[in-house]
Fold each of these.
Amino acid sequence: MHRPNPRIGLLNIGEEAGKGNDLVKDAYKLLSNAPINFVGNIESRELLEGPADVIVADGFSGNMVLKSIEGTAISLMKLLKETLGGSLYTKVLTGLMYGKLKAVKQHMDTSAYGGALLFGLAAPIIKVHGSAKSEAVYTAIKQAQILIDEDVVGIIEHTFHEKHYDWLNSKA
């Protein structure tokens, strides 16, 4: 939020315009012709590097990517814990690196991010994982409050009517 011209990317299996299934190819055509800052296809391996501010995906693919990232983060944290908890030497090193390791853990903690934002016509929807803990639900509620307080749906509606209405109607 708070980006005047957000970079919009499309989740795909490759960067090239001709890649993907029919749905993704059609979405690419629509997005590339839309009056937005479309940066093209984004592969899932690039998502955490920040090539786009918003990623467009169908629900199935987006959910698969999110669950894969979440599983990788959990596995990595378990591996670090097992590796650094063995000998006295690694325990001392872990103690010296505690602040840095804690920062990594907090950065990878999915509950700190709440849920995935889905924008409906009347209100924002925040999808929280079924196994989410109370902190994730709390963060999602805070996200919803921010979206409501800042009238994000109203801003999107106004922007579409002001800048994109003619373009959208030409595609109908």
Amino acid sequence: MKREFLTTKDGSVTIHLPDWNEQYHSKHGAIIEAKHVFIESGFGYLVSSEKNQSDSLAILEIGFGTGLNTFLTFLYAEKHGVKIHYTGVDAFPVIASEITQLNYPELLAASSEVFEKLHQTPWGSPEIISKFFTLTKRKQLFSDIKDKEKFHLIYFDAFGARVQPELWTESIFKAMYEALKFDGVLVTYSAKGSVRRAMQAVGFTVERLPGPPGKRHMLRAVKL
């Protein structure tokens, strides 16, 4: 499938798939969207929650992709001293020549060496990135995820339901529900009614939140 680079409205680059008319991140701002949906509404929310009594957090990302969400999480963890065990799942990883076109370290005034390391670490085994951050990358279909009560937080960042509806079904969200610990949280950029209903059908308590630029709403789901 043809792949192109697109500069989004906040200056950050994403990968565009013209055959699907779909991007890895919002064209209204890749970094802005990732910060709003996953860091502020997910990671930051969970860290500040009174229910969170853990001295470390286990995070699952559905769609490792460009590594932007992982990189932002690393930076947040380092800044706030939060220990993270991060698992990124992707069946079709971004290739090395594409990674060099992504300008996230420059725009975030952060280490390009760390960003490159996130992509260069081997798939399938835990790799220590820093004293606060351990990364495991799994080359795996989302439908094959079988983890049980392992994660505090899930970043659900799959391609949209318009192009891959099979990733937004009750069966997928059942696997997500089972992968979360009690009081675990899932956040996603999508606010479609069918997505919300699929989450609720498997047991999630779902709230609709203000979305990032270009989207009116997003969803946050909790396993209670």
Amino acid sequence: MTGRDFFIFSLIMAMANGIMSPLVLAVAVLNPIWFPGLVLPATEGVVIYLSSLIVSTATLLLAGIPAALFEQFTNREETDKTAGIIWFIGTLVLSLPTLLAA
């Protein structure tokens, strides 16, 4: 398995976290702050969908921080399998509330 495979696993885990996370409702409640409703109407379905997208994107971004720090501190030129594993573990840790609630 390569680093790319672990990144794909991280994407799948982040999508599952975005769909089933308890944080989706918290983000949906804050929709007047992040969703002005200029292009799409602020219907319940649109707000929940975009809230899910925000949670999954935030999961992926936050999980990538330890992998990026690892690459920076070890002076790696390219992303390798170890960084992919670190990214996947970070995604898994951030998805624990979702996995435990399911």
Amino acid sequence: MAKLIYEEWFVKFRFPGHEYVKMVPSELGEIPEGWKVKKIKDVIYSIKKTIKSDELSDDLYYLPIDLIPRKSMLLKETKPISDAKSSLVSFKEGDILFGSMRAYFHKVIIAPFDGITRSTCFVLRPKSLDLWSFSYLTLYQDQTVSYASQHSNGATIPYAVWKHGLGDMNIIVPSKTVIENFEEKLSPILKNIMLYFFKNQNLRKTRDLLLPKLISGEIDVSDLDIHIRNELLES
């Protein structure tokens, strides 16, 4: 839903009140009056806070690029912090992680926690809080991922670059009023997506706790009123 709303407002320009806004020419074609063409680096910071493995605390999550899902906003798992060894960078809850190694795999998520990744990911942060939802969904667009892929170095394992690369991509930045309206509507949706990780972790812990007890018979479910469809019994 978040992606569809973004495209409706900022690709098709059908944002609330669009019928009262004049379209004006720009280097990216006609855009609503009051909107501007800027570079990604004008609205988003690239954070490069390196950290050594012996400086890590046990309460941090380790999220290497291989665990970031392809073309999905839902993060499911992490690795033990003890697995974090080299080329480490830290990130904060709410930062945007953009897979720079083989960028065409489209690995772009919002971090639901403070943690550690590797230099194979960009750690990105909007320069203004009201640009958070807009920044993430701009980076999540196929067009942005394609641009990053095209501006990569290396033949065998291409790496996207920020300077003279993704950071220099031209984007259309809406007026402050539209941005604030968008943030108000989209921020709750994206925060719910972030919570999915913790809900999934709790379900896994519950499963791991109950399954051995069910198998051993320690928990008796014979008295539960459970109805199973015939087709499931036959499968």
